[in-house]
Amino acid sequence: MTTLNDQLKALKVIPVIAINNAEDAVELGRVLVENGMPCAEITFRTPAAAQAIKNMREAFPEMLIGAGTILNSKQVDEAIDAGVDFVVSPGFNPTTVKYCQQRNMPIIPGVNNPSLVEQAMEMGLDTLKFFPAEPSGGVNMLKALTAVYPAKFMPTGGVSLSNIDNYLSIPAVLACGGTWMVPGDLIDNQKWDELAVLVKDAVEKTR
Fold it and tell me: Is residue 41 annotated as a catalytic residue, yes or no?
């Protein structure tokens, strides 16, 4: 059986998407799938998130789809109802983690220091989001954490085409979250060809 970690490790980069119009989700999903990135973390920063996830899931049932910026159990319910495979939170909220565990929904919470890593591991989590990656010390900080803790990480926040290789070179890093290949203005303006180029570049950089 392929685990979530196996899927993340194979993908190497997860597009972190803020989508304003749920109707754009299907075409965006097509761009991602056709250009070698059959995955998406759709953030709950916009009201369209849940419906966008539903639309993408219906059109592309095999895609790996996560819900990002999940802050509470109500959003967890919305994400599960929409059909996500996993949940991502910007910080470590034990209440949200427990709720996800009760609902058998994988959660990757955000951490950026030793204390938070230990608290997450105490709750049985071994895959964590290093966020915000660059402002929190970047590669050097993450190397220090991975030298001590037997956890896997998904750095997000400030990761770009120019530094993603540095993160992926760390053995404990499964994949990186990034926004550079899915800029909101291109999505809003339905610039699918331009998005396709950015997605293809990201895939070629990390394969």
Answer: yes
